[in-house]
Amino acid sequence: SQKIEQNSEALNIQEGKTATLTCNYTNYSPAYLQWYRQDPGRGPVFLLLIRENEKEKRKERLKVTFDTTLKQSLFHITASQPADSATYLCALAHSGGGADGLTFGKGTHLIIQP
Amino acid sequence: DARVTQTPRHKVTEMGQEVTMRCQPILGHNTVFWYRQTMMQGLELLAYFRNRAPLDDSGMPKDRFSAEMPDATLATLKIQPSEPRDSAVYFCASGVGDTRYGYTFGSGTRLTVV
């Protein structure tokens, strides 16, 4: 069966360090992968998209990698800040255009300690 | 900033009652999704529309759930009759055909069925 796995345990990182979150998937051939941030009581907010033919994508302090051989994406936040504390969700598109909707992992709760 | 508006934000209802949740997608977005989020299951895709036409509702319990998009500014999700296991946060999201921009989620409707 298809699975998207993110570390269910909270990740505690000291302020200023790089936080790295992992998204593993099985039985998918995704055209692209997206990362979202979710704060308590709010809906997910889109952060980054990376396509299957891209190895890396950056946006300000964020970096995403996508390894279709390992079936894994890594999400990095450099120079982390307490305001980065949130739950981060990865999501896979079923088809090339995303027309079939996204399937989400359950998310990793990130805590940045001052 | 453009927003996806969901109403009501909170709903407490008795088992067996009808529940209607509403969503106003962002003007110009032609794709609308309904997701349900619980601690156990995470975000689950219930149904989605493109250009107001339903494309897939295989994630929805058909006997009690229905989703419609009577016009481009309104999407509805109905549960009749509601059951305690329907208690969850229901999110609406909208997007354009180009998924480089991801999807924009509303703040959700927190439903409690007692």
Describe the structure.
- The complex is a heterodimer of chains A (114) and B (114).
- Chain A has 114 residues and is mostly beta strands.
- Chain A has one domain (3-113): Immunoglobulins (Immunoglobulin-like).
- Helices cover 0% and strands 55% of the residues of chain A.
- Chain A has strands at 3-6, 11-14, 19-26, 32-38, 45-51, 56-59, 62-67, 72-77, 86-93, 102-104, 108-113.
- The model of chain A has no long low-confidence stretch (mean pLDDT 91).
- Chain B is an all-beta fold.
- Helices cover 0% and strands 54% of the residues of chain B.
- Chain B has strands at 5-7, 10-13, 19-24, 31-38, 42-50, 53-56, 65-71, 74-79, 88-95, 104-105, 109-113.
- In chain B, strands 2, 4, 5, 6, 9, 10 and 11 form a seven-stranded mixed beta sheet that branches.
- The interface between A and B is medium-sized, with 24 and 25 residues.
Indicate the multimeric state: heterodimer
Kindly provide the radius of gyration of chain B, computed on alpha-carbon positions and rounded to a whole number of angstroms. Answer: 13 Å
CATH superfamily of chain B: Immunoglobulins
Could you give the order of the helices and strands of chain A?
EEEEEEEEEEE
How much beta of chain B, percentage-wise? over 45%
Find the CATH topology of chain A: Immunoglobulin-like
Average pLDDT rating of chain B: 93
Helix content of chain B: under 10%
What is the radius of gyration of chain A computed over CA atoms, rounded to a whole number of angstroms? 14 Å
List the helices and strands and how they pair.
The complex is a heterodimer of chains A (114) and B (114).
Chain A: E1 3-6, E2 11-14, E3 19-26, E4 32-38, E5 45-51, E6 56-59, E7 62-67, E8 72-77, E9 86-93, E10 102-104, E11 108-113
Parallel strand pairs in A: 2-11
Antiparallel strand pairs in A: 1-3, 3-8, 4-5, 4-9, 6-7, 7-8, 9-10, 9-11
Chain B: E1 5-7, E2 10-13, E3 19-24, E4 31-38, E5 42-50, E6 53-56, E7 65-71, E8 74-79, E9 88-95, E10 104-105, E11 109-113
Parallel strand pairs in B: 2-11
Antiparallel strand pairs in B: 1-3, 3-8, 4-5, 4-9, 5-6, 7-8, 9-10, 9-11
